[in-house]
Write a structure and sequence with these properties.
Blueprint: H1 4-8, E1 33-41, E2 45-53, E3 56-62, E4 73-83, E5 91-93, E6 100-112, H2 117-123, E7 125-132, E8 136-143, E9 151-156, H3 167-170, H4 181-188, E10 193-194, E11 197-198, H5 204-224, H6 233-238, H7 242-251, H8 271-285
Antiparallel strand pairs: 1-2, 1-6, 2-3, 3-4, 4-9, 5-6, 6-7, 7-8, 8-9, 10-11
Helix pairs in contact: 4-7
This protein binds manganese (II) ion.
Manganese (II) ion (MN) binds near residues 46 and 61.
Length: about 290
Amino acid sequence: MALKEYRAKRNFTVSPEPKGAEPKTIKKRGVRLFFCVQKHLASHLHYDLRLEHDGVLLSWAVPKGPSIDPADKRLAMHVEDHPIEYGTFEGVIPDGYGAGIVMLWDEGTWEPLVDDVGEALSKGDLKLQLHGVKLKGSWALVRTKGGDGRSWLLLKHRDEWAGPIDIAAFAPLSIKSGGDFVDILAQESPDLWTSNRAAKGGSAHMLKVAERAVAIAEANKKASGGQDDSLGHQENNTSLKPQEARKQASSAKPKAATTASAPARSTPRTPGASGRAARSRAARSRPR
Ligand code: MN
């Protein structure tokens, strides 16, 4: 099956998403595998967790996003495998399946904490270690009983990387561009974004997506108080006006898709990188 379902859902003459090369099965014992989380503003906002396995990206859509609080059990819907090249994709899907904005929210490597990933998947219990910019430490994906078998739960184990922080709210921006959804829209699809608002040129769906993107950016700005330095230059990008973002984009337009093996680009400071101090600072200033 591999990428059949992925390709069947998409029209690659319309979507900038990668079509994907044929997956190769590679034995990778002891090798760290690629993982990412893409924040996807489509009909609904959700976070797509993707884990490299056997030449493709296993994928789960997590409506509320990952939580580093072990008390949270986050629903994760198992969806179709994606091509490896998809893992660094950030951009705008103007039409068709998943139409909306994709942000590369986290990226890094993962290690299975089980001997056989295939067996763990069929058993519905995969323990894993994440080495991301935002997500680190020990996690589990556990399939729920009943239903159609596509419902899993994403759980953080108790370790030094766990904490009572809403990580999605604390670190809402892209680790690829540093921007929010509006910045990605302005850079990738200036035709859908004019004079600091959604252009009438787009479809009704994209107009709605753009309006939600604005609301999300405003909420993020408000949450950060405009002067929270705990996220460094990341937050400054939030206040970037889309027109300015567009101007910047002409000089430094990030590639929509690069190879999965490319090293992480300039990675903004996040709780993972700056450790416990930043996290406890955030816990004090922003009660959940
Ligand atoms: Mn998605």
